[in-house]
Design a protein that fits this description.
Number of domains: 2
Distance between the termini: 41 Å
Shape: elongated
Helix content: 25-40%
CATH topology of the largest domain: Rossmann fold
Radius of gyration: 21 Å
Number of strands: 16
Amino acid sequence: MLFGDGDGFVKCACGHRHWGLHGAAGLLLSDPDRGVLLQRRAWWVHHGRTWALPGGALKSTETPREAAMREAEEEAAIPHDAVHLTATSVVDHGTWRFTTVLGSVRRRVEARPTSSESAGLRWVPPAEVANYPLHRDFAKAWPSLRAQLDRRLVLVVDGANVVGSRPDGWWHDRAGAAERLRDRLSVLGRDGMPGVPGVGTSGDNKGAEDARWCWLPRIVLVVEGKARGTAPADGVEVVAAERDGDTAIVRVTQEARSQRPADHVVVVTSDRELRSRVEGEGASRLGPRTLLGMLDAAS
């Protein structure tokens, strides 16, 4: 066997051996009609004859998303443009990390084994996954992963409120300030960027769970007044409020919740009355400072 960039075993801080000098990643692909795509590992690979995800070691120049998509194409003939990526979940062992990249099909995918590392592929209904002889680490992660299957994050941004949260002279050019915010928002969810963390987890272990998850959002920027002429940008939808921004934000929230009820809808605002209204529609709230801190970190 020839070893390539990133190939090799690492002994993690927990004392286990893992494949991937720079960590590893796998694609959890779901199809609402067929279930999730599982791969049976060949007998000769690490944890052979178990079921897990198409995936493998990261190369030194790759992000986890890039690695997961490359491995899915190499091992299961999954084309990049057939997958809508929604989130990532990271298990960190200190000296080694595994990233599960979650995605849903954009169209019907005919997966087939295209690597000697794969002994078979199968679409499995989520309720039946736990009945398979799973890879040890995948079995441990599966309950958390299953809870987020086919769910997406809709990030609704109160443009006037976020722009007004920093005294940077926005009042001299409200349209320009809205455009700058739009352009900064467009980096969220791009490959290599952190995405939106800590959405949709709950329970006694919420803090630890939040750290594992990052979401690749659908972004809706709501603008009003002199900023109503703001045009959409790559990855950012723009809604111009006909009257007041709050009413438009509530309407966008209601539409998102009705179209895909399982999705996470998060409204970015510090307005208390608006917060109460969107929470009444089943949405969560994120403060402008938190959002701007994420954008600062991504720039």
